[in-house]
Amino acid sequence: MQNSPSLVPYFYAGCVERNEMSMACEALIVTDSAGVKNKVFILRFDSLDMKYDVAIIGSGIVGLSTAFHLSEKHSDLKIAVIDKFHTYAQGNTGKSAAGFRDVFSSDTSFKLSSSSIRFYDHVQRILGIDLGMKHVGYLFLMDNESASETMEEIGRKTKIEEIGLDRLADLGISVRPDADVKDVMGLDDIRKAYLAHNAGIMEPDKIAAFYYNQCVNRNIDFLFGTNVQSLNLVPEKPLDYPGEPFIWQDKTIGSINTDRGEISADTFVLATDVWTNFLTDPVGIDSHIRPKKRQLFKIRNEFIEAIVGRKVLSTESFPFTVFPKGVYIRPSPAERTFWAGVADDIGRDFSFVEDPQPEPHFYTYNVYQVLQAYMKPVASASVTGMWAGYYSYNTIDGNPYIFRTLNLIVATGTSGSGIMKGDAIGRVATALYDGEEKAKLYDGMRINTADLGVKSRHVEEEKLVL
C-alpha cells in the first residue's frame, strides 16, 4: 500500500502576526501559467534575531518538497523557507522544459523519477489537484545501435514501446535526411524509435503551488525577497577569540547573513540549484556542481498548430520528441506551439550570469538545423518566444548530490531533472535530517541515503541527460 501524506485542505492560509519576532505578512497576487490569480503571502520581519529548527534556502521544487516532507514527519519543527525572489519557483524551476519521464539509465535516477511521478499522479488523479500533468509520452529517435541498446535496457524497468518507423511520417518526421544535409552535418538515418509511456509534460508552477499551499497551512514561514549572502561558520564551543574558528575547533553553521538580517537555525538546507557554489565555496564545502546554460525556443506555424494537440501514437497529444544530436521538441497543446531546445555540452562553457538571456542565433544555427533535417514541416516555423536558465550540472555521473556535512544538508546537481525527481529528493533530504540510512520513497522503494552523498557515493553514470 502506498504511503499517502496527510494533506491539509488546499487553500491559501491567512497570515498571523507573530509578536515574539515582530513579524507580519504582506499579500501579493501572482498569476500562474493558466492565468489563475493566486494570493501569495510574504513574511516581513523586523527583528534581526531569528531562530529556527530548520532553515531551507531556496523555494524551487526541491526546497518546497523538502519543507513539505520535513513538516509531514515533524509537525513540531519550526521551519523557514528563504528565497531572494518575490515568490516561489522563480529560479530555474520556472525556466525548465517542464517534462517528466522515468526513462533513465541509472537505477538511482529511475527510482527518484518514477516515485516522484507516481506521487504527482496521486495528487492530480486521487486528490483532484491539477498539476498540469499530461502523459503525452517521450518519443526517442535513435540513429545508432548503442543508443538503441540503452533504451532496450531501460525498457526492462518501465514501459517502452518500439514504434515502427513507417508511423513517423504521420508526425511529419523523416527517417532519412537529405543526402547533402547528412554529409554536411554528419547526421545519420533514424534506425529505431521508442515511445516511453510513463512520461509527458507538466506545469511546474502548479506543482510548486501544491507544495507551497501545504507548507503554508502547516505554519511554515516563507521569507521571500530575502537574499542569502553567506553562511556563517562558527566554532561549536566558541572562545570569543579573534580568528575563530581555528582548524582544531569543531565547526558548525551558526547562522546565515541575508540582506535583511541574520537568521539562525539548528539545521540548514541548501536547495539553491546553481547558486549553491556561491554559498558553499567561501566556507570550503564542495557542492560538486557546475552551471550549464540551457535555452528554450517557442516555435509555431500552421503545421504545429494542427498537430500539437492531436492524439498520435496512443498518447494524449504529440509526444515530447528527442531527435539525434539531442535536439528535442516539447509540445505545448494549450499554446499550440512546440518548445525546442538541446542540452549542448562541449562548446557550452560553465560561466554564470544572474539573468541569462537566450541567443536567437543558437536556435538558427544549431537547433533549427537538426529540426529541419528530420522534420521538414517545421522548417517554416517562427520563433514566438524564448527564455534561458541553468542546469545545476553534476559533471561526474549526472545524478543529484544530496549530502550532509556539519549541520548543513545540500541538495543540488539535479542536471535538468529536478522537477521530475523533486518529491523523492525532498524525501531523501528528510531522511538525512533524521539520520536514516535508507529513505522511503512514495511508491515504497527505498534508496540508501549515502548513495547520493559524497564519501560513500554509489550510483551509475546517467546516460540520458537531456
Q: Decide which structural class fits the backbone.
A: alpha+beta
Beta-strand share of residues: 25-35%
The overall average pLDDT, rounded, is: 91
Number of helices: 9
Overall, the morphology is: elongated
How many β-strands, per DSSP?
A: 22
- Name of the CATH class of the largest domain: Alpha Beta
Largest sheet: 8 strands, mixed
The CATH topology name of the largest domain reads FAD/NAD(P)-binding domain
**CATH architecture classification of the largest domain:** 3-Layer(bba) Sandwich
Model regions low in confidence, pLDDT < 50 over at least 5 residues: 1-6, 8-24
CATH superfamily name of the largest domain? FAD/NAD(P)-binding domain
Alpha carbon gyration radius: 23 Å
Give the proportion of residues in helices.
10-25%
**N-to-C CA distance:** 33 Å
Number of domains: 2
